[in-house]
Amino acid sequence: MADNDDWNDAARDAARDDYAPRRSASPRGATPPRRERSPARNDDREFRRERSPPRGDSFRGRPAPGSDNPNPGNNLHISGLSLKTTEQDLEDVFAKYGKLNKVQVMYDPHTREPRGFAFVTFDNNTDAEAAVEGANGVEILGRSITVAKARRGRARTPTPGRYCGPPKKDDLPPRGYGGYGPPGGYAVCQVEWEEKHLVRDSASAEHITFRMVLAAVAQLTSTGVIADNLAIASGLVKRAAASGAKALFLPEATDFIAPSPSVGALTRSAQARSFVPDLCKEAKQSNIWVSVGVHEAPAEESGDKERCYNTQVLIDNEGKVRESYRKLHLFDVDIKGGLTILESNTTIPGKAIPRVHPSPIGALGLQTCYDIRFPEPSLSLRRQGAQILTFPSAFTVRTGAAHWEVLLRARALDTQSYVLAAAQVGAHEGTKRVSYGHAMIVDPWGSIVAQCSDMQPYKPTLCFANIDLDALTSMRTEMPLWNQRRTDVYPEL
């Protein structure tokens, strides 16, 4: 389709609208009279009410239900795009669902850089519905895209991590933690990393070098079928490697989530015993490190045939198991209102904090899920030299909504480390469990720098972030918390 800037201009206008003072036009077509205090002018109250038309459901001016500017249903918003995605790439994917009226990749109106999303308009609603159903999760240039009905034709949301309002003079925030980006440095998983973290060699426009090392964190929904879970995990390994990640972090219980009475038998099944070896082969083939949470059967001589260990396994890019960690703290809770879980019925607690292990993205300290509520292991790992803490998890919805993000950011701040938290999400078939999701990466400043989508229906997905160890070192030097600890007053962990 021919290039045109209609939507880009609309995005620019929308940004200006968002930052412009909110003034309503006079209904009489002229400058409104000054508001004066006059008890006799009862009709002035009516006049003022007419001057303030409804603005929809938020101060941003989005159309309210039933407004004059709704999405007619044939306009789709496509997110999660690689910054290298072209309109032709999108046409190739969406043309099979019906006649296309317009395809437009969105660009920043000031920098002219791609914004990582696009609009696709179909000739009719039926074709658009088919595209939403069929194209969600399709990969374009190694990225899994998200397709949803657009709220309107013009883009109003600023690009995450980039300022899209009217130009400002010399007021950009400084580089480093808490710098560029929305409040708290937040960026969702659809935000692309390519252009932001790549530099071109001046001698060759084709030569590209990385400033940082890319890590991937996964979000998925395990079931009681181990073969299906292995296929999903293997697919995520391939996707992460294709995107340039040097390490992938999978959630707790990636191998299976099943009713409690089945855990012992499933853990000792042939499929469960081959899960890690099969994933080792995939890691080697894809040349990527993989961390995965699995069920580990105890030694036969233990005599415990009903329980297992909740274990995190670290696999290198040669397919070798480098480290394993057995979860220390078990989720035994009985919360008023119905949440009763006794993990100790099916799980044997570990007895040791693992040693910190080097990896291509930094020194890793392994923990699992409920361990995050106890700061002592994180502090111990930090003392050993950990730069990155991992928390593969399967938080419940109730505890996750209340505490998940807070705990992850707290551990990052406590230790001035990156926190990588893969997560289970959604309802697990055959059980009463529903997991919270919200897999994310938190930097040492406590900012969320990547997070997986929470859009339903849930699909296996990844989020990416570059691990900047130089910035981590600078932060620890500039704010030397570790050297300021009063171990003369309280014990060192």
UniProtKB/TrEMBL annotation:
Keyword RNA-binding part of the UniProt annotation: yes
Basic and acidic residues composition bias: residue spans: 9-21, 33-60
RRM domain boundaries: 74-152
Stretches with biased composition (Polar residues): 68-77
Sorted UniProt keywords: Hydrolase, RNA-binding
KW RNA-binding (keyword) present: yes
GO molecular function: hydrolase activity, acting on carbon-nitrogen (but not peptide) bonds, in linear amides; RNA binding
Region Disordered, annotated ranges: 1-77, 151-175
Pfam families hit by this protein: CN_hydrolase, RRM_1
Transmembrane segment boundaries: none
Limits of the CN hydrolase domain: 212-469
Protein name per its UniProtKB record: Carbon-nitrogen hydrolase
